Amino acid sequence: MKNTITYALLLAYIIVECSAFCIYNNIIANKDGATTTFWLKQMNHNAGLNLLAHFSHSILRPGEKTCCSYQDGDCCKSGKIDEELVIMYRRTSGRLALYPYTFTLPAGGWIEFNGRTGDLPEDVQDYSVDVYYHDGTRYDTKITKEVAA
User: Fold this and answer.
1) pTM recorded for the entire structure
2) Tens digits of residue pLDDT in 46-59
3) ∠54-57-62 over CA atoms, to 5°?
């Protein structure tokens, strides 16, 4: 019985992971222990009509991930795996909060924030935003600096 429950939970986890876009924070802390976190909010483009139900995550810490199923009408109104979505993010490195940006991604793909937290304010750009389709091929994301959040 215990194995059946374990297998059922594992299967549910795999199904959710395979039908969702996910965002990973892989940014490494600096030598003083300062970390980089992200605030994330899905924009209206190809999202559902309920603005309050759009994907959002207030603090994505290093080593964490967050996901939203493309089959959920609030995350992707069409339910199509390759539908283009837009996410706004604001990065905080140490105590420095930076301008918000938006990026595009496919509804069934994933995003990795990679790099390290800078030791000085001028080092804060030492990261990358890597975006992929559901099959692992690179997605040519569009990143735009926003004037206000």
Assistant:
1) 0.80
2) 766 666 667 889 99
3) 150
